[in-house]
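Reviewers of the previous submission asked for a worked example of the structure-prediction workflow described in the proposal, so we include one complete record here. The input consisted solely of the amino acid sequence. No template or homolog information was supplied to the procedure at any stage.
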Amino acid sequence: DEEAAIAGVLDELRAYDPSLDVVVVDDGSVDATAAIARARGAAVVRLPFNLGIGGAVQTGFKFAEANDYDAVVQVDGDGQHDPAEIGLIVGPLARGEADVVIGSRFLRPTGYRAPVARRFGMVLFAFVARWAMRQRITDTTSGFRALNRDAYRYFARYYPTDFPDAESLVLLKRAGFRLTEVSVNMRQRQRGQSSTTTLRSLYYPFKMMLSVLVVMLREAPPKVAPSKEAISDALRGRTPESLAPSADEPRGGTT
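From that input alone, the workflow returned the following structure tokens.
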């Protein structure tokens, strides 16, 4: 239920780049989120009931795969992410340096202050992810991410359904994808209410650690085979690097 914030988010996305394809995944909301998004010109995928964070995000990746986008930028609907910084997180994709880029609040001091319970969880998640991935990730819960075609197609098939933040990163790393972070400024939620309640924040760390342990014990699913379109592009000499969005003009969908 993001009717109080979604219009501002979509207006900022259009101001950044009017040519972006924008899709809003409505996870069983009971307010006017979908109607407002349509009025702002966004494509809207309405889920028949609430699937939770994992199901909603994976729906966005499935939409991207169906439309064969070069890249996807994931943006929360609560206004915390600044669309003006999309170029920052798309840049490493365009340069072929990473498959997934995470916008981090903690690579450098930004003034962002999370509630105490959530701050404890963030520190714990970063420690567990670093242990599991053998790579330092400072902001495992950031929803401001950019993914190339291979990465989002992987998530369209394999994505954690419950508390997916750290687990999804470990899954990507074990499957052989390259991850990196860039520093971004993240705003405090101005309207609406987060789905992560205080009780959920206390339960989250234990569920997350169990999920990461299960991912570590299982063999990671293999990368998805290239699409017919990607094979055709390769045969014509169009490399993934040439198709990747530039830092100034990112191509692809925004979920």
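Strands lie at 21-26, 43-46, 71-74, 100-104, 145-148, 179-183, 253-254. We consider this example representative of the routine output the project will generate in years two and three.
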